[in-house]
Amino acid sequence: MSFLKVKNLNINYKTRKENIIASQEVAFTLEKGEILGIVGESGSGKSTIANAIINLIDPPGKITDGSIEIDGQQICKNENLIQIARGKKIGFIFQDPQTSLNPLFKIKDQLIETIQTHLNLNYSQALQRSIQLLKEVGIEEAEKRIDDYPHQFSGGMRQRVVIALAISCEPDLLIADEPTTALDVSIQFQILNLLKDLTKNRNLAVIIITHDMGVIAETTDRVIVMRYGIIVEQGPTKQILTNPQSNEAKSLVISVPPTNKKINRFKLINPKGHEITNNSASITKNIIKTWGIRENKNQRLLNFSNVSKIFDDGSIFKKVSATKSVKALDNVSFELFEGETLGLVGESGSGKSTIAKIITGLLHPTKGSISYYDKSLFDQNHKYKSFKNNGEIQMIFQDPYSSLNPRFKVKDIIAEPLKFYQRGIGIDNLYQNVNDLIDIVGMTRQSLNRYPHEFSGGQRQRISIARALATRPRLLICDEPTSALDVTIQAQILNLLKDIQDELHLTMLFISHDLPVIRQMCNRIVVLKNGIVCETNNSEDLFNSPKHSYTEELIKLMPKIESII
User: What is the pTM assigned to this prediction?
Assistant: First the structure.
């Protein structure tokens, strides 16, 4: 008998306007010692199924039909049983460890509370068990670190603490919802290895929900592919990835950036299984009329020379406090030439985003110089000369939802930088520009009268790109622009950026911890570690023959879909 059995599960969200079907006749089984992957685009119902298993469906959501059995017990709609099972039989690892841990309590308090809720242990026994759990998930100096607060841990370490919480009561089933999405490649590798070891050593049944097909290839035994709340295909991982039958599975597999070669464009297929081809020249012709024809002369556009950035607490007590200053950048230098895409890669805290913020004037350097077309971006007092580049340097942020004003309609979001940099622009000319920009990013003009919350993540990122293009930039800084998107939407956005760059002759600085994406998007790559440049090289040379041991390690550790093919 299967340990977990989900049978004909239907979940509906009934609102005043409509009845949304989040899950329809979903059925699957899971054995102990097995890792099951659930994949699909955003909104396909992956997380809904996981939440249903532990009865965390938010109102007005409701399980309307079907059953969920764990170890022969029917837990669906049985609140008493699920309360006993949650934590003791079922552990849950959420996507963001920062929000799943209470910032006001020490790690030991959170572990001990969970352990004493489900197990008959006194405080001393629970404390010893907590220390042992931290050691098991790979946290060094566990006896000392257990007295720390969540903010004192890195992202990867926080995720290890969350895993320790999830396994603290020796559950039989572990559900991990996007457990490695926000983590860089080396931490991701460690977390996935930890999950595999726990599955083997504790004979756990594990469900991993992810949009990373490399993670699926290297971690799971079987895969479920979902779309619009329906399972469209399920089977052994190798079978699904090498010979997908449904158009949805084909779309997910074909959109994955290859790790072993460079391609010109990401392939996309429509719901009918036909390949999608775009002609970017047709959508950019109007904007080219406005901007004028540009030519790239391979001239040096940006010179980032011997830049260091030191952060301190800035308080009057810093001389007597134990707080130490942090050197985010240490003598960093690189050049960026017209028309190229330069990639910045490295672990969290390596200084990638600090570089982007300095170039855009959100931070000032402690020392060093940054010049744009041989003109310094900062004066002697480290004040940013924003008027010098006149909006020619723009940024696309990682999270499109938090970077778009929720109170503005899309037309006002795109128009705002136009009004700022082209003072006195006529209303007709303004909205003609807005129309052209929304056309470029492949959205309808009807969407201009809607608000950001009415769009998907991919659509919001398209709006962010349109806003960034409004000032006619020459340099576009892309800070993790696709990390929050599923693989098919990621492919669409990356193709769009390539098209826009080709047609409008843009230069791009591309920041990401996703090495396959970096390989496909960039001509040259700068590798950073702890604020220091380890290596700068042409993209293919760097991947084929890395010079620095750290670069070699990053390439070796990245999840590869090819590993199973």
Answer: 0.81
